[in-house]
Design a protein that fits this description.
With about 100 residues, the chain is of the alpha+beta class. The chain has helices at about 15-25, 30-40, 40-45, 50, 70-80, 80-90; strands spanning about 55-60, 65-70, 100. The chain has a three-stranded mixed β-sheet. A hairpin with a 2-residue loop joins strand 1 and strand 2 (about 65-70).
């Protein structure tokens, strides 16, 4: 049997998702990918009302910063912080963000 000339490569074909996840793990980009996935799906997670009044969303030190243009929506989001964090955890996984801060 012929030996694989590329020791880092696998001979077997793998599903694209599995290969992509393996690549993210190899380059230690899993957390960054999940953060970007969360930011891009923010409107899907919180709904159209909050999404329309959101001016910016970013993550720093496992804290999700959300800048809103409406005071009442900001207050509502702050009151339902734990529910929003649970929805985020369900969508992108545990450990991506630990805290929600509304600006």
């Amino acid at each position: 049997m012929k030996e694989n000339p590329y020791p880092g490569r696998k001979k077997d074909a793998a599903p694209l998702e599995a290969a992509f996840n393996e690549l993210l793990k190899a380059y230690r980009l899993e957390d960054k990918f999940k953060e970007k996935q969360l930011i891009s799906s923010w409107g899907e997670i919180v709904g159209r009302t909050i999404s329309d009044r959101t001016t910016s969303v970013f993550i720093k030190d496992k804290k999700l910063f959300v800048k809103l243009s409406s005071g009442p929506v900001k207050k509502e989001l702050m009151l339902n912080r734990s529910k929003v964090l649970a929805l985020i955890e369900e969508k992108v996984g545990k450990g991506v963000v630990e805290e929600l801060i509304c600006l």
